[in-house]
């Protein structure tokens, strides 16, 4: 059975080849992103293995189905980039990796909080430049601060547990409260209440029609002046241009992003030789109180091994007619 892995990087090759391969499976690692220009590369491959910025819209799915593909094995938990009704219509099965390491993402959110608060990004550059002054580096104690967790599934709950360890007070917003988070003495409140009370807000909900632009000019105005916003969920959860205005007038005191609404055209590639064409991202990068990482929250050894292991097992199960981790339309 032929499997093509789009958007594959050196670390994907290493992690997939580090797992026992099910018999009869032939893996082709393809660095290109899947889209209408590259879809022909998938011809005669039974399985297309895709990542978060691959294009799985109806026109691409139609060409995949016409070329003989029958299974789309996502190397991600999120599936907001897949046109599920089109996949169903075309008889394409979609499987995913529902959980690989909630710790990887939650710990990255905490890394962003600590770096922003203690201004490690500025201190790193300063000392390398021979500047050992401390002005502008004042942080705050995390103990006793109120942290708002939006989305308390696997990642949000793991994040909440870590922040409870710092001695933070926890507020949570999720249509389905999680008993593990309630056990941490977190209070489930409405989103406006969370925004109004939390000094740090971290987004851990999926991107859906309901959650698109959950953070916008109005919700930013509801936050405490100088609040910190962390987004390791999906770029579309936040209306990005509104962030610029909130940063300019100080309403937003700190911003940590691992995801960006327009990341598909940029992230996972070395573009350091090229002029940055995205003016919104370029403006965000000028603020000293903003840290942007290029969708790396998942990138730990443990998470990569789990993604490879579950993906190979999803493919093997499907080949035996026992589909697991299926995404339903
Ligand atoms: P999960 O399915 O375990 O939890 C999601 C939670 O969000 C659920 O409890 C759900 O009830 C809640 N939710 C749904 N809609 C909501 C809304 N409008 N407002 C508030 N809560 C809402 O998912 P998990 O594994 O915790 O992942 C969360 C998200 O993190 C994923 O959907 C994905 O977008 C993102 N992610 C980011 C990664 C990165 O590398 N930056 C890696 C993995 C996931």
TrEMBL record:
EC number: 1.1.1.28
Domain of life: Bacteria
Coiled coil: none
Domain D-isomer specific 2-hydroxyacid dehydrogenase catalytic: 5-326
Keyword match Transmembrane: no
Molecular functions per Gene Ontology: D-lactate dehydrogenase (NAD+) activity; NAD binding
Gene3D superfamilies: NAD(P)-binding Rossmann-like Domain (3.40.50.720)
Magnesium in keyword set: no
Enzyme category, top tier: oxidoreductase
Keywords: NAD, Oxidoreductase
InterPro entries according to UniProt: D-isomer_2_OHA_DH_cat_dom (IPR006139), D-isomer_DH_CS (IPR029753), D-isomer_DH_CS1 (IPR029752), D-isomer_DH_NAD-bd (IPR006140), D-LDH-like (IPR058205), NAD(P)-bd_dom_sf (IPR036291)
Domain D-isomer specific 2-hydroxyacid dehydrogenase NAD-binding: 110-297
Family in the record: Belongs to the D-isomer specific 2-hydroxyacid dehydrogenase family.
Name this protein carries in UniProt: D-lactate dehydrogenase
Upper taxonomic lineage: Bacteria, Pseudomonadati, Pseudomonadota, Gammaproteobacteria, Pseudomonadales
